[in-house]
């Protein structure tokens, strides 16, 4: 009805025919359904409003429907198009043109394990990202790297700039303190693994030594394997209120990814090529040396070397030497899709090849996908998704160490007059001021991860029963995610720190082999029933089963023979094996009621058991309930009102988070002493009665839509409580254990999410789409049953996180002049004050211009790169005087003077504003190409795009977005000489034919 | 169409069978669980459990030696990646020892880990009928070994916290005993050793397990009993109980022979990936400001000419500087990644013998000191033989004989001479003891 007004206004909707005819019973309406490019739309649904009588269009877009009673309203719908209602008064030819949906309001969102609901009826703020939003502006380096700034409620944080990913996604604040905080990823029904497995660099770096027991290898996480080009849509269930149907694994949220599928019709081909380069976003520069400063800091001998190097022009900017490369990027993608009535396919292959900004680093990936849909008969559908991925990442050697060996640490000790280049024979000099020569390390080491991965999923839908008012459907689904990963960390014996004369290990070869297999099976029954007065019931019940099996073997060999890297060609070999097995089993049941799209209510429950719980066969129940009221459907407003949607919604749900694997046991580890085997206690005491963490989330909000859906507002407020927090609590070390696993606390997150989507301008030649999102989350530990403790960094002297009742879990405290009652001074919080995203897409004729900006306000980091540089007298701002309140000491001396006095100078504001994505494209349409290859080309899109092109921040290092300890922790934002992040420049061409 | 329905029903029933609801329960797939030893302890199990003592007693021993060596002003520890060795441990500026930093928490918890490993062995031995696997003598010998280890580990922790005390009774993790005073702790440690000695004396001819090579010559109950007594002699010396020192030394492996300084028991190290490398080894070539143990300069200036013990240090080509500390000699007491570190050896026993005799029999004390001097290539002692002078001489010999073995700080402390230790920087302090780790909740 609103549509009618739009047509009358006639400004931007395509006109269609409407031929009134005198009412006669039992007549046929038929015609062709096409899109605004005049291409037929096959498979579109045509339903007589108020009934379940319907039909679908065939391959050429033809439809035919028998109408019993006139006048009647026909509802035309198809995924990706705006639903259209047309009133008919008798049998006629009715050709319909469907508009491609612009605002995304017609899309469907997940509400059950087997069902979806129209977004307009959803009771949750489910974020959804289309292929266009994901990859339309610029090809992202990895899938998770494409999520920045695109929806409210997600904190996306890169752990390092190393090629091949390493990104964490956290939804609606801290969901666990020491358990899993990464969302569950499900691709076409397959539970996919997102683990990050260390490559064994610790043997050399010794990072997990005295200050922190955490391994700081910083491997990439496996979701990076997925190819963004294959993805049709991503839906994000941000908290338990939406994700309760995923039960015991869903507390950190669920990311549901749907890949592209074929459409019946003409076979479409697409070829695209992106070529460009990456470069460091921000190099710090060299300290402003002069003779006196060199003499003061490094002594007389160094001053002489400085003078000699200065006069011979041999001062080297080693930062630029190491991080100054332009990494070449090439992304090639080819896809084809099409099919007929019964069988449809999508096939694609993508090859990425990217070099890093450090020599000998880079990322290569090949992904092949085949998706098939087959419909042998009206009542049965099969669909299959299959994906093979090969990837190889060379990640260099960065982050913290305790041995002076990583490239980053070595650089902090390197001065411009140090002679580090190899001689003509290729022999590298030893670093005069450090245990390793960073140029030699860069050139000779290998740190590689290789993946071979297969992800396959299949679904069968069977209509068991179908009538006018009710139907019953059976859905069977299975999925498999298998990968083999090889890690190779090779430190050859010529390295300065491997030479025996220097106390080295004479070469290290560390080789890991990881086999991971997940598979999941599920079966559902869905029953729909509509009453006379259009009250619709949908009931679903199902059972699920998931299996996880991972085996990690890491062999570390030291004392290598000649230039051999095989682990048997070595003096000493150590082997480490870690297995992980888990079985989960669950059921769920859900009832949805929809009264004329006015009131939509859902109640459901999931029951789960898992081998990861203390009692494996005890069922844990996760209930959910929600209610949505579409006030605009009640007829309060006149048909030509500006209100298109006014929905109030409220939802509640619970979800779980498993204890970490192994937390149930108190065990020994095996070691040897002079060949005598022995077992010594692991320092963490397990608890066989440990329970899962449980999240209870209540969210409510409203969705508003005005001016023919050209202006949409959505506001959501949520409160989520996480109870039974699993903590590794400090235990009196005199027990023989330093920590124990306990359920000992409660955490609360409160937050608000606002989003606005608008089409301020839409004319024939010019259109402008604008999206703005804002979100703010506040976390607080509301209950802590164990004494407050410090965690997640390098101790109070340097700034640390502190878990304390009544405070934020991400507060940063340290020693300081004005300590609070707990003995520490609070210096900051790694949680942002708020974040905003800004998306704009401007189209003028054939040109389109799009941008994604992201603003993170506040949030603090612990910056130790600067401290390490200060201690070595090499920081870029060493002699600048703007920190010392007395204005006497240079920044370097001031920061060093604060060591042991106050941690304040190490805690820095990590807010930023970034131009995350930029794209400018020109499209050549089929009309313009009518004389090229016989008019066989549909369109060509040419353009330039970039990632992180503008970065504004005050933070005194490479990038405020960093995590020395990787992604699966809430304690991000600790920086120790990372791989600097980079910006990307790409030239793109895409041909559709 | 019917064929499809038929196919479907078959598929659905197969799926239903696969999706059965029972979930398998797993034990710890990666590690041996403690519960597994609570019954049916085998000889192989006991070997593994005892092997755990040999392993865990070595963990973080390097940090222990750095703690005692740096505060005792034997050397400076330079570390590019951890500034606290040159700030906190030396009391640089206004820095003090923190109660939640690796230098105390790591060695403290490692020692108590060994105590727990030992207590679990005592539990397993005491809670089941082992007559099918072991003789009573073998059980007794194993008890004696475990008790000796427990006592020694407690002693090392007490050396760090001194007057702050330690927890003596930690056998029940859920019901820990209180912190006790230094005096009470020393008495308790001594009585653990004496209980262990009784068990060892009843331990028969042989242990039921093998030892690493660092215990060569002391791997039977009767010879290990000598080690037990040697440690008890050290404890008695810390108690100032000279009579007891001499009596324990009587039953130890004390040998008053200038040719025999090194008989004793040692920690083994190796590059084997499941073992540990010697944490005290940094080569001269591998020494930089980022990684060094620089000898405190007075160690060189105070040395007597011709002292052979100066071979424990090595001169660098150029001085190394960090944080206003400078030096050109490095600690070279340990010369490779697989070098052994002494637990207790004859040179210390001779010095304990000398120390106890200063009050009891000064002539015998001078004799003993002369054995040490002879072994170091020095002439006989010619100074005064009053108690003070002999104590000076004894401490001097201990400083050089036991360099980098974790004694200097403790020796100066027990003779109340910490104020005699040199300060490299004007604001430095010599701390007398570490605080009790924060997580002990004291």
UniProtKB/TrEMBL annotation, chain A:
GO terms for cellular component: cell outer membrane. Residues 121-254 form the TonB-dependent receptor plug domain. Residues 1-25 form the signal peptide. It holds the Pfam family TonB_dep_Rec_b-barrel. Keywords: Cell outer membrane, Membrane, Receptor, Signal, TonB box, Transmembrane, Transmembrane beta strand, Transport. GO terms for molecular function: siderophore uptake transmembrane transporter activity. InterPro entries: Beta-barrel_TonB, Beta-barrel_TonB_sf, CarboxyPept-like_regulatory, Plug_dom, Plug_dom_sf, TonB-dep_OMP_SusC/RagA, TonB-dep_OMP_SusC/RagA_CS, TonB-dep_rcpt-like. The keyword Lyase does not apply. It is a multi-pass membrane protein. GO terms for biological process: siderophore transmembrane transport. Residues 393-948 form the TonB-dependent receptor-like beta-barrel domain. NCBIfam families: OMP_RagA_SusC, SusC_RagA_signa. Belongs to the TonB-dependent receptor family. This is TonB-linked outer membrane protein, SusC/RagA family. It comes from Pseudozobellia thermophila.
Automatic annotation (TrEMBL), chain B:
Keywords: Cell outer membrane, Membrane, Signal. The keyword Oxidoreductase does not apply. It is found in: Cell outer membrane. Residues 335-417 form the RagB/SusD domain. Its main location: membrane. GO terms for cellular component: cell outer membrane. The keyword Cell membrane does not apply. Pfam families: SusD_RagB. Belongs to the SusD family. This is RagB/SusD domain-containing protein.
């Amino acid at each position: 009805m609103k549509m009618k007004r739009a047509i009358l206004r006639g400004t931007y909707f395509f006109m269609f025919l409407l031929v009134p005819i005198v009412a006669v019973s039992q007549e046929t309406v038929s015609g062709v359904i096409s899109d605004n490019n005049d291409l037929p739309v096959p498979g579109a649904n045509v339903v007589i409003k108020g009934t379940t009588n319907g039909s679908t269009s065939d391959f050429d877009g033809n439809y035919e429907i028998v109408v019993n009673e006139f006048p009647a309203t026909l509802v035309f719908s198809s995924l990706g198009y705006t639903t259209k209602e047309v009133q008919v008064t008798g049998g006629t030819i009715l050709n319909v043109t469907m508009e491609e949906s612009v605002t995304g309001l017609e899309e469907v969102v997940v509400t059950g394990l087997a069902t979806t609901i129209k977004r307009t009826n959803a009771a949750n703020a489910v974020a959804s990202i289309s292929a266009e939003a994901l990859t339309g502006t610029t090809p992202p380096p990895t899938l998770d790297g494409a999520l920045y700034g695109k929806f409210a409620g997600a904190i996306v944080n890169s752990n390092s700039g190393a090629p091949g990913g390493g990104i964490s996604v956290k939804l609606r604040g801290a969901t666990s303190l020491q358990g899993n905080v990464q969302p569950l990823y499900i691709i076409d029904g397959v539970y996919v693994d997102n683990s990050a497995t260390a490559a064994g660099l610790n043997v050399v770096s010794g990072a997990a030594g005295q200050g922190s027991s955490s391994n700081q290898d910083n491997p990439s996480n496996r979701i990076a394997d997925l190819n963004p080009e294959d993805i049709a849509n991503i839906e994000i269930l941000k908290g338990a209120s939406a994700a309760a149907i995923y039960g015991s694994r869903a507390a950190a949220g669920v990311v549901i990814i749907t890949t592209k599928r074929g459409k019946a019709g003409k076979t479409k081909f697409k070829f695209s090529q992106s070529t460009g380069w990456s470069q460091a976003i921000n190099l710090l520069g060299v300290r402003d040396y002069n003779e006196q400063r060199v003499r003061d800091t490094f002594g007389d001998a160094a001053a002489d070397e400085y003078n000699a190097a200065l006069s011979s022009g041999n001062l080297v900017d080693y930062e630029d030497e190491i991080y100054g490369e332009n990494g070449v990027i090439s992304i090639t993608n080819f896809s084809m899709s099409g099919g007929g009535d019964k069988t449809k396919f999508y096939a694609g292959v993508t090859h990425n090849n990217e070099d890093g900004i450090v020599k000998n680093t880079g990322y290569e990936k090949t992904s092949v996908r085949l998706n098939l849909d087959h419909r042998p008969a009206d009542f049965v559908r099969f669909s299959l998704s299959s994906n093979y991925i090969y990837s190889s990442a060379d990640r260099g050697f960065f982050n913290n160490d305790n041995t002076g060996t990583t490239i980053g640490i070595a650089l902090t000790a390197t001065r411009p007059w140090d002679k580090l280049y190899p001689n003509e024979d290729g022999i590298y000099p030893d670093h005069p001021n450090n245990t390793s020569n960073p140029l030699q390390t860069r050139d000779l080491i290998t740190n590689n991860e290789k993946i071979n991965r297969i992800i396959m999923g299949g679904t069968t839908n069977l209509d068991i029963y179908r009538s006018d008012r009710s139907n019953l459907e059976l859905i069977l689904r299975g999925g498999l995610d298998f990968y083999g990963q090889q890690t190779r960390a090779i430190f050859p014996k010529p390295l300065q720190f491997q030479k025996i004369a220097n106390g080295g290990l004479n070469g290290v070869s560390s080789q890991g082999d990881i086999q991971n297999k997940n598979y999941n099976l599920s079966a559902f029954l869905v029953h729909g029933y509509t009453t006379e007065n259009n009250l619709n019931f949908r009931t679903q019940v199902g059972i699920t089963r998931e299996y996880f099996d991972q085996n990690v073997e890491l062999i570390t060999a030291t004392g290598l023979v000649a230039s051999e890297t095989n682990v048997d060609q070595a003096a000493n070999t150590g082997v480490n094996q870690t297995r992980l097995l888990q079985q989960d089993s669950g059921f769920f049941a859900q009832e949805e009621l929809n009264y004329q799209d006015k009131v939509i209510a859902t109640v459901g429950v999931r029951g789960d058991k898992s081998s990861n719980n203390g009692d494996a066969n005890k069922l844990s129940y996760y209930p959910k309930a929600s209610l949505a009221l579409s006030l605009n459907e009640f007829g309060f407003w006149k048909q030509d009102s500006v209100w298109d949607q006014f929905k109030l919604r409220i939802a509640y749900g619970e979800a779980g988070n498993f204890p970490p694997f192994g937390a149930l046991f108190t065990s020994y580890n095996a070691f040897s002493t002079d060949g005598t085997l022995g077992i010594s206690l692991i320092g963490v005491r397990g608890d066989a009665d440990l329970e899962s963490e449980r999240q209870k989330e209540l969210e409510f909000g409203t969705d508003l839509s005005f001016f023919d859906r050209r202006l949409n507002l959505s506001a959501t407020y949520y409160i989520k409580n996480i109870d039974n927090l699993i903590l590794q609590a400090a235990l009196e070390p005199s027990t023989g254990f330093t920590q124990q696993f306990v359920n000992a606390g409660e955490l609360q997150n409160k937050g608000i999410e606002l989003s606005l989507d608008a089409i301020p301008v839409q004319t024939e030649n010019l259109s402008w789409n604008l999206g703005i999102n804002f979100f703010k989350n506040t976390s607080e530990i509301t209950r802590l049953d164990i004494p407050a403790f410090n965690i997640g960094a390098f101790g109070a002297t340097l700034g640390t996180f502190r878990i304390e009742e009544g405070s934020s879990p991400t507060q940063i405290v340290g020693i300081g002049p004005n300590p609070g009652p707990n003995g520490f001074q609070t210096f900051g919080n790694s949680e942002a004050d708020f974040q905003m995203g800004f998306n704009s897409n401007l189209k003028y004729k054939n040109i389109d211009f799009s941008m994604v900006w992201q603003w993170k306000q506040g949030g603090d980091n612990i910056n130790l790169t600067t401290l390490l540089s200060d201690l070595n007298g090499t920081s870029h701002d060493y002699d600048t005087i703007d920190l010392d309140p007395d204005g006497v000491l240079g920044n370097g001396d001031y920061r060093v003077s604060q060591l042991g006095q106050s941690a304040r100078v190490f805690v820095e504001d990590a807010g930023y504003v970034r131009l995350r994505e930029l794209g400018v494209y020109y499209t050549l349409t089929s009309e313009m190409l009518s004389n090229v290859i016989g008019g066989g080309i549909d369109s060509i899109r040419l353009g330039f795009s970039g990632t992180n092109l503008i970065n504004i921040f005050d933070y005194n290092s490479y990038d405020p977005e960093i995590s020395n300890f990787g992604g699966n922790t809430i304690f991000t934002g600790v920086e120790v000489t990372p791989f600097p992040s980079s910006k990307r420049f790409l030239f793109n061409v895409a041909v559709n034919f | 169409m019917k064929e499809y329905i038929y196919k479907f029903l078959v598929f659905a029933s197969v799926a239903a069978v696969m999706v059965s609801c029972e979930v398998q329960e797993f034990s710890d797939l990666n590690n041996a669980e403690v519960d597994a030893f609570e019954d049916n302890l085998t000889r192989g199990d006991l070997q593994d459990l005892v092997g755990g003592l040999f392993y865990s007693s070595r963990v973080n021993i390097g940090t222990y030696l750095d703690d005692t060596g740096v505060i005792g002003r034997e050397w400076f520890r330079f570390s590019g990646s951890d500034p606290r060795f040159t700030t906190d441990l030396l009391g640089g500026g206004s820095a003090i020892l923190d109660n939640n930093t690796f230098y105390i928490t790591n060695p403290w918890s490692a020692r108590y880990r060994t105590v727990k490993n030992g207590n679990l062995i005592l539990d397993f031995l005491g809670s089941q009928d082992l007559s099918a696997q072991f003789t009573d003598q073998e059980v007794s010998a194993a008890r004696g070994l475990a008790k000796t280890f427990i006592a020694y580990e407690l002693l090392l922790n007490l050396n760090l916290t001194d007057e702050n005390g330690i927890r003596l009774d930690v056998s029940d993790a859920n019901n820990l005993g209180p912190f006790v005073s230094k005096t009470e702790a020393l008495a308790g440690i001594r009585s653990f050793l004496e209980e262990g000695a009784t068990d060892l004396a009843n331990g028969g001819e042989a242990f039921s397990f093998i030892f690493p090579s660092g215990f060569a010559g002391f791997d039977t109950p009767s010879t290990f009993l000598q080690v037990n007594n040697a440690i008890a002699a050290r404890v008695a010396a810390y108690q100032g109980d000279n009579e007891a020192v001499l009596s324990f030394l009587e039953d130890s492996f004390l040998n008053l022979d200038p040719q025999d300084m090194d008989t004793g028991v040692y920690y083994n190290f190796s590059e084997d990936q499941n073992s540990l490398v010697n944490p005290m080894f940094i080569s001269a070539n591998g020494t930089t400001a980022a990684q060094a143990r620089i000898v405190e300069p007075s160690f060189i200036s105070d040395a007597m000419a011709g002292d052979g013990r100066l071979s424990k240090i090595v001169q660098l080509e150029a001085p190394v500087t960090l944080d206003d500390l400078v030096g050109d000699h490095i600690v070279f007491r340990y010369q490779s990644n697989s070098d052994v570190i002494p637990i207790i050896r004859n040179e210390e026993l001779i010095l304990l013998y000398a120390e106890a005799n200063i009050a009891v029999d000064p002539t015998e004390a001078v004799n003993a000191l002369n054995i040490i001097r002879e072994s170091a290539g020095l002439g006989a002692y010619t100074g005064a033989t009053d108690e003070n002078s002999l104590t000076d001489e004894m401490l001097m010999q201990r400083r050089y004989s036991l360099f980098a073995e974790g004694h200097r700080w403790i020796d100066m402390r027990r003779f109340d001479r910490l104020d005699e230790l040199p300060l490299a920087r004007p604001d430095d302090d010599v701390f007398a003891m570490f605080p009790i780790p924060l997580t002990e909740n004291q």
